[in-house]
Amino acid sequence: AATEPDSNRRAYAVWVSEIMLQQTQVATVIDYYNRWMQKWPTLQALSQASLEEVNELWAGLGYYSRGKRLQEAARKVVSELAGQMPRTAEDLQKLLPGVGRYTAGAIASISYGQATGVVDGNVIRVLCRLRCIGADSSSPAVIDWLWDMANTLVDRSRPGDFNQALMELGATVCVPKAPLCGECPVKQHCQARHRMEKELTVASQKLFGKPAPVPDVEDCGVGGCPLCPPATEPWDSSLGVTNFPRKAAKKQPRVARTATCVLERRGCHGAPEYLIVQRPSSGLLAGLWEFPSLPLAQGLQEEEQREVLADHLRAWIGQPVAMGSLRLIGEVVHIFSHIHQTYVVYSLPLDADITLDPALSPSRWVTEKEFYASAVSTAMKKV
Ligand code: SF4
């Protein structure tokens, strides 16, 4: 913030980095961020980009709707807000699509110095440990409490630095599995650590036959408190400070199978070319390109898979496809956040020239090099 005097550019840069960093690690984001800012250094430049260009640059970063929404929001700022970024967390969240409470707080505190807190996964962990919050950390009561706490704690004079420091503390010291409590700059305030130390004292007193101390009234955990560990899952001594935070059991990802076919022809210079088609503009991997693919119903035998795939391909190439000509190559597994996807990969070499039906979704023939430069997902690159 100190090196960029133009507040709109500052907020735009923080915004891009924050959106890219959602669900993606810093090491991966840096290269994407630099390329993005080089290509679209301002909101105005981004507002003129096409979705295809955005998807191409985003390819491999995952969660593709993030790039799309970023570009839509940039267009909105340029066309409806006279190119001026909203100046407060409340307005950022209200006016910009894809900007939630966390991103709004980060942009407002880092770019404009608004004294507003942020709560991300790292902050949740640090605050839950600092205050022994043992209820499900995704429950509304805990989330509200964490935001209140973050807004109370934030340094009024350097809110951006404070928020980044708190997140960094979670990323580097108060890490999920083996936190470095001995090196922690806030250890004297940490109730989880106090509790752990107290337990060690009690254990050693027991060892020497001294009577156990009377329980401290502040070690509540009873009476249906919405912030304490549930009575069914009390403090586990073997876990120490990593008793916190507690999370509700994760939902199992949905299992899905998709047949996909790599159609290959000889291009005009003799090099092989492959057919790619564009996915619908909404839903998973919206607007990205892929080999013609078809979700498979559960329990289909290989013969039945070939049959439905041959049918599907006929629509693309406008002529019947003999089931026997589809060669089964193998299976590729790709894990999306909520889907365990298996691609059953076939290939089909074509001799005759094919005229693609313009009434269908956009499709095109690409060389291998063009394929990698296109807006295709990591899953398709694996295929
Ligand atoms: Fe986290 Fe340990 Fe620091 Fe507490 S003392 S905030 S548990 S690293």
Automatic annotation (TrEMBL):
GO terms for biological process: base-excision repair; mismatch repair. Its EC number is 3.2.2.31. Residues 20-172 form the HhH-GPD domain. GO terms for cellular component: mitochondrion; nucleus. Belongs to the Nth/MutY family. PANTHER family: ADENINE DNA GLYCOSYLASE. This is Adenine DNA glycosylase. It comes from Calypte anna. The lineage of its organism: Eukaryota, Metazoa, Chordata, Craniata, Vertebrata.
